[in-house]
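Report of the visiting student (M.T.), summer placement. My assignment was to run the structure pipeline on a short list of targets and document each run. The first record concerns Signal recognition particle receptor subunit beta.
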Amino acid sequence: MAWHDQDSWLTWVFSPSISAIIVTALIALLLPVLIHTILYRTQAQASTASFLLLGPSGAGKTSLLTLLERGSTSATHTSQTPSSAEITLPSTIKSASNEYRSENDSSFSGAQRFILTDTPGHGKLRQFASDKLDAKTLKGIIFVVDAANLSKESGGRAEEGLTEAAEYLHDVLLALQKRYTSAKTSKGPKELPVLIAANKFDLFTALPEKLVKTELEKEITNVRNTKSKGLLDSGIGTSDDAVEEEKEWLGDGGEGKFEFRQMEEVNVFVDVIGGNVTGADGPGVGKWWEWIAKQI
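After the run finished, the structure tokens were exported:
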């Protein structure tokens, strides 16, 4: 049957019949909705917010991942490889992008999900974390520390725990600083928030948030001074290497006391928030949930 025949589909489409009008109206109304749904879901799957879980071994990273994913903790062991999980925010907490969005919006649930990647804390396995710092979907870094193991005045294991945490955090912040200073555009990379999750607040020996911040800043200053001296002793620091020297020193050129607020100049914003993964006496993980929600 030719298209110009009286009974052809083209003749029917342009005819003034009720059925043709209804079909045309349905196509006009439903096609844009269908296209929007397909495009939105494809984009949402490709750009799901992601967070990196960092910190020294024994701080509670894997336990935190398990708790956020399943709502309960279980026995864990030292991680040897990265592990990721898709996590949904609790129904009582809205992400920043959902603040003014109706719960009846079909995209509401999608904006409540994020990917959390736990990385090994052992010194020889930390390259897994550094490889993921440039991910385009990265919305923030959660650096877990043991708040009951950070007092240098206590000596022994606590002093070692502070030094290990400060050295790792120093290297992470320096990598983020280089990410900014090495940018090829004047605008630089987007803001990247860092949460220092002071874990084990249910223990009596845990330091308060302000002291966690102070102790880490002091120890990072010591780490920076030690590394800077090593660079100078190795010959870096001559006029020809001035640019490289500046890139290797964290904060304000490696001088004076290091403070987390110095990182704001390179679009890195650091918050110290206490909580606890296990134990019923501490504040729990509520404030950490809220911090994550603000980033997505």
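The longest helix spans residues 18-46. The longest strand covers residues 138-146. I thank the supervising group for their guidance throughout the placement.
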